Amino acid sequence: MDRRRLFANLPSVDKMLSHPRVIELEGQYPRTLLVDIIRAEIDGCRSKILSLTEDEMESFSIEVDELVQNIKNEIEREYALNLTRVINASGVVVHTNLGRSPLSEEIKEDMWEIASRYSNLEYDIQSGGRGSRYSHLEDIIRKITGAEDVLVVNNNAAAVMLVLSTMAKGKEVITSRGELVEIGGSFRIPRVMEESGAKLVEVGTTNKTYAADYEDAITEDTGALLKVHTSNYRVVGFTDTPGLRELKDLGEKYDIPVIEDLGSGLFVDLSKYGITYEPTVMDSLKNGADVVTFSGDKILGGPQAGIIVGKKEYIQKMKKNQLTRALRVDKLIICALEATMRLYLEEDMALKKVPTLRMLTYKIEEIEEKANRLYSLIEKAHISADVKIETGYSQVGGGSLPLERIESRVISIVPENMSVSKLEEEMRLSQDHVIARIYDEKYVLDVRTLFDEEFEIVCDRLKKILG
Ligand SMILES: *Cc1c(COP(=O)(O)O)cnc(C)c1O
């Protein structure tokens, strides 16, 4: 064969488009994308031919079947959504980079129904007139928390901003130096305050702040006392910070509202399940916060949202703030949140059905059972690696309980013919995108954050890579 003959044998785009398997693809994918990919594949062949030596040319032929297969692979890859599923074997339950809380299986039908049909989002079915999108969440969140009123916005950062903008714009807000937190993505409490138009007054020191420090800073310009739950770090040792009750007493004495940003909202006291006590939303209200804000998708286990609960007089004002319109939540979030909240009407139900809570409260026997299950699957796959069940520690994540190490079981893997970091990379880059840790020079899969159906997937992928 000479080069000219090879070029002449190259199929045209039209010829490829009439191939039965390509016609099938045309039914599934956009035609323009398909044509672009066919063209690129043919161009690839052309370059290949140009680069052939005389000898190579002798044995070279154009395989149409192979070309079709390449086109199929390429169009699948290009058409796949960029936002894609990953398997979390990191043991970090509320993993912000991996989408925080996975939603409950229980709510999927409700969500699809609202997503794919019309709804009473802002329509009052009783009167046939206009309704409020916020009304759907009010009753249920009031019922669970006992709060007077509720408002839900885009996320907790937005909630803090709206609260401050409504209650303290142009006024001073007193906060402890020990609580000026930065959470991920450089959300800094001092900056948020500035954006909201409130003026920050820092009191105390990093490790010690007393109620008297707040009291000394109170002036006629004070708009609120703010307590920020230091969710992602702890000042340990010689520390002091006034409790909510003390702030409440001050607030009453000077007629100033007390705001608490709880960060991760909790409705269930997890100390019953072996996790360090954290104030629940109900505790916060009971202890005198006038307004409390928290996230929907941290430990609460719902969709991304910022939930504001507290005194009606303040929340009514927030509802009228122009900012609220810019921070509003859409119907999918409202539906997901309402359906998740419904599970909280009974604590046991929430613990069972909300994946985040379920993962955080597994008994160690349940974790052992999961580890054994994954171990035996891997054992049967006969991979070339040293595989063990070991004790490891999971984390809550999402900037919550930073010091908490929850005892777990992990499968540790040391491949025989591959480096641990190469294995980590191949698992991550594979179609299944398994995200795991390297610890102590071993590849470590924490079973706590694996869903049941993912055990086989992880195992099959290990087999493909190390089999
Ligand atoms: C996480 C957190 C926020 C921000 O919440 P998002 O829902 O991520 O916007 C604000 N304050 C505290 C204390 C937090 O922990």
Automatic annotation (TrEMBL):
Converts seryl-tRNA(Sec) to selenocysteinyl-tRNA(Sec) required for selenoprotein biosynthesis. The modification N6-(pyridoxal phosphate)lysine is found at K298. HAMAP family: SelA (MF_00423). One of its GO terms (cellular component) is cytoplasm. This is L-seryl-tRNA(Sec) selenium transferase. The keyword Mitochondrion does not apply. Residues 50-77 form a coiled coil. Belongs to the SelA family. Pathway: Aminoacyl-tRNA biosynthesis; selenocysteinyl-tRNA(Sec) biosynthesis; selenocysteinyl-tRNA(Sec) from L-seryl-tRNA(Sec) (bacterial route): step 1/1. It catalyses: L-seryl-tRNA(Sec) + selenophosphate + H(+) = L-selenocysteinyl-tRNA(Sec) + phosphate. PANTHER family: L-SERYL-TRNA(SEC) SELENIUM TRANSFERASE (PTHR32328). InterPro entries: PyrdxlP-dep_Trfase, PyrdxlP-dep_Trfase_major, SelA-like, SelA_trans, SelA_trans_N_dom. It is found in: Cytoplasm. The keyword Transferase applies. Its EC number is 2.9.1.1.
